[in-house]
Automatic annotation (TrEMBL):
It comes from the Bacteria. Its EC number is 4.2.1.12. This is Phosphogluconate dehydratase. [4Fe-4S] cluster binds at residues 156, 223. It comes from Erythrobacter ani. Binds 1 [4Fe-4S] cluster. Catalyzes the dehydration of 6-phospho-D-gluconate to 2-dehydro-3-deoxy-6-phospho-D-gluconate.
């Protein structure tokens, strides 16, 4: 392992300095929580009886206090393909716990919505703030204080960040995240993308589109494109919160079960000790590693919002300047759809996270000295899990890529810098996912067309009103306006315009999916339009420039004397009105767009 890169060291030191106060307060809180956590023998008998009454097979062990008790927080439902395998996990995990003299209970459940189902629909406005609800649900589950360790079962978009934010408030305990793995590969991603664009262009009907989608999303397991769900799993590896190499092992396999067993056994080993608690594992270096992994693999833009929020829950302050500076030195190592043709199964077969970790450590581009849930620090994560000849879990080092069209070394990358860039100017600050966009399209300067919802964009496209060079502005999509929904349903229409030879870009205070494609997009724009942000001052025909090369996001017109467009009325239905309180109190996208963290003063 080479000496740590100067930029990585400098950014880490700056984050540590900026976080000194809140991090110190957080760690002091965790010390107090550890000291005041009641021993089971000191808890009133009535309380214990309530806690143990449903655990018929483990009652004797619990009454005798024979071993640690693991709290399982599960985001199981069988509408999410990624979470469907979790249905049987608790029963198996209880058996695994008994094997090492421990017990396990389902401490509670967290809601888990599928952005793929709500994409382009009204329910998507609940998506981002479901993260706060998941964090609060995790807090409720763990508030019983009957647990010596935490097993978090979650994979998808807001679920892993929400589980981590909630669990960090109980960071005096050890915690391990337990994934279930991706579904097998379906139809090629190129074929899926072509079919979507044909449908957007009116060349095929709905039946053909549905058959194509079913060919892609077809069985239990995580969706195989490299969106937010799979980026979550990458980050848990880079932060040392998984059993090493467990991110992308498919469900229903012997290896998957061996990894799940290892997670429970390891939690039982750590539980009740002061070693490797969640608060200790998730430190400034772990957060920096998460950013580095995101940049190196071209991961989901959603994590420009989630990483600051997760960090804040641990008393760590990080912003887009830090992420952009890291992006200047972290090379792009992976081409996973939508940034390439292969999916996460192909990525894993090429060496996956084990090789990414190996080459980043070799070039001094990641912190190797993390305190991880597994012995050996980040070096343990540079090997892939296997079943040896005795069918026991083992690890094999991964020292080279098995497919350099999918995965490359840090000294021979796809591009010399990371997958995201910060663009700024008189329209605010925004994120640009450069890894998914051809470099010749990094700069777009054209008259804008302003919209206040994505359905009107699609209508204008179908009417031929956008058949030209255009910057499409979709405003009032920020956290406080309507919950900051993803606008991924715009991608096929805008991609069609781009394929027709037009220069096209999207500017929005909303989000794009982790599956954001080839259209240049300045997203998460802050300040948001609601309340008079710069996007509220734009008018149709204003010339807007988006440039990832120079980091510009600006309008050529003088906006200083304009009156902002009026804030839209809040929509009701599909439960959106129940989330209005969270939206009203949310902070900016760059801070993590959280009402809960803002209200707590974190």
């Amino acid at each position: 392992m080479n000496r740590l890169n100067d930029c990585v060291h400098r950014v880490t030191e700056r984050i540590m300095e900026n976080s000194r106060g809140p991090r110190s307060s957080y760690l002091e809180l965790m010390r107090r929580e550890a000291d005041r956590r009641p021993e089971h023998k000191d808890v009133a008998c009535s309380n214990l009886a309530h806690a143990f009454a449903g655990a018929l097979e483990d009652q004797d062990a619990m009454k005798a206090g024979r071993g640690p008790n693991i709290g399982i927080v599960t985001a199981y439902n069988d509408m999410l393909s990624a979470h469907q395998p979790y249905g049987r996990y608790p029963d198996r995990m209880k058996i695994f716990a008994r094997e090492v003299g421990a017990t396990a209970q389902v401490a509670g459940g967290a809601p888990a919505m599928c952005d793929g189902v709500t994409q382009g629909e009204d329910g998507m406005e609940l998506s981002l703030f479901s993260r706060d609800i998941i964090a609060l649900s995790t807090g409720v589950a763990l508030s019983h204080q009957m647990y010596d360790g935490i097993a978090c079962l979650g994979i998808c978009d807001k679920i892993v960040p929400g589980l981590l934010i909630g669990a960090l408030r109980f960071g005096h305990l050890p915690a391990i995240f337990v994934p279930s793995g991706p579904m097998p590969s379906g139809i090629s991603n190129k074929q899926k993308q072509e079919t979507r664009q044909k449908y957007a262009a009116g060349e095929i009907g709905r039946d053909e589109l549905l058959e194509s989608e079913l060919g892609s999303y077809h069985s239990p397991g995580t969706c195989t494109f490299y969106g937010t769900a799979n980026s979550n799993q990458m980050m848990m590896e880079m932060m040392g919160l998984h059993v090493p190499g467990s991110a992308f092992v498919q469900p229903g396999t012997q290896l998957r079960q061996a990894l799940d067993r290892a997670a429970v056994h390891r939690l039982a080993e750590l539980a009740g000790t002061s070693e490797r608690t969640l608060a200790q594992v998730v430190d400034e270096k772990a957060i920096v590693n998460a950013v580095i992994g995101l940049l190196a693999t071209g991961g989901s833009t959603n994590h420009a919002i989630h990483i600051p929020a997760m960090a804040r829950a641990a008393g760590i302050i990080i912003d887009w300047n830090d992420m952009a500076e890291l992006s200047s030195v972290v090379p792009l190592l992976a081409r996973v759809y939508p940034n390439g043709s292969g999916d996460v199964n192909h990525f894993h077969a090429a060496g996956g996270m084990s090789y990414v970790t190996r080459t980043l450590l070799d070039e001094g581009l990641a912190h190797g000295d993390l305190l991880t849930v597994w012995d050996g620090g980040m070096e343990a994560y540079a090997a892939e899990p296997i079943l040896n000849d005795a069918r026991e879990l083992d690890w094999s080092p991964v020292t080279e890529t098995r497919d350099d069209s999918m995965l490359r070394s840090a000294n021979d990358p796809f591009q010399p810098d990371g997958g995201m860039r910060l663009v700024t100017g008189n329209l605010g600050r925004a994120c640009f996912k450069s890894s998914a966009v051809a470099k010749e399209r990094w700069t777009v300067q054209a008259p804008c067309r302003v919209f206040e919802n994505q359905k009107d964009v699609v209508s204008a496209f179908k009417a031929g009103e956008l058949d030209r060079d255009v910057v499409v502005v979709v405003r009032f999509q920020g956290p406080r306006a309507n919950g900051m929904p993803e606008l991924h349903s715009l991608t096929p229409s805008l991609a069609v315009l781009q394929d027709r030879g037009h220069k096209v870009a999207l500017v929005t205070d909303g989000r794009m999916s982790g599956a954001s494609g080839k259209v240049p997009s300045a997203i998460h724009c802050t300040p948001e339009a609601l309340g008079g942000g710069p996007l509220a001052l734009l008018e149709d025909g204003d010339v807007v420039k988006v440039c990832a090369e120079t980091g510009e996001l600006c309008c050529q017109a003088d906006l200083s004397g304009r009156t902002p467009a009026p804030d839209p009325q809040s929509e009701w239905g599909v439960g959106r009105e129940m989330y209005r309180m969270l939206q009203t109190h949310a902070d900016s996208a760059e801070k993590g767009a959280s009402a809960m963290l803002a209200s707590a003063g974190l």
